[in-house]
Amino acid sequence: MSQIRRSGLQTEVINFYRICCRAVRKKPIEAQNRFQQFVRSQFRQHTISPRDHNMIEYMLRKGKRQLEVYENDSVKDIHS
């Protein structure tokens, strides 16, 4: 069984997606589906070249700041 070799940046994006998915599970049950749809849409809406490291790093920083806001306990639901 061969294992896919990923760059450090690819691994960072995948790990960030997992962190976002875990954060969704901390939200109220009735809002989790909306949060999950939002996470998916945010990851899919941008078509960035895998070679555009600057843009990927920028989007990761932006996403991490956005996650900090949505992880706040006062945020109970999302409307996209």
From TrEMBL:
Keywords, ordered alphabetically: Chaperone, Mitochondrion
InterPro entries: Complex1_LYR_dom (IPR008011), Complex1_LYR_SDHAF1_LYRM8 (IPR045295)
Keyword Chaperone carried by entry: yes
Main localization (coarse): mitochondrion
Name assigned to this protein: Complex 1 LYR protein domain-containing protein
Pfam families hit by this protein: Complex1_LYR
GO CC entries: mitochondrial matrix
Domain Complex 1 LYR protein: 12-69
Family indicated by similarity: Belongs to the complex I LYR family. SDHAF1 subfamily.
GO biological process terms held by the UniProt record: mitochondrial respiratory chain complex II assembly
Localization annotation: Mitochondrion matrix
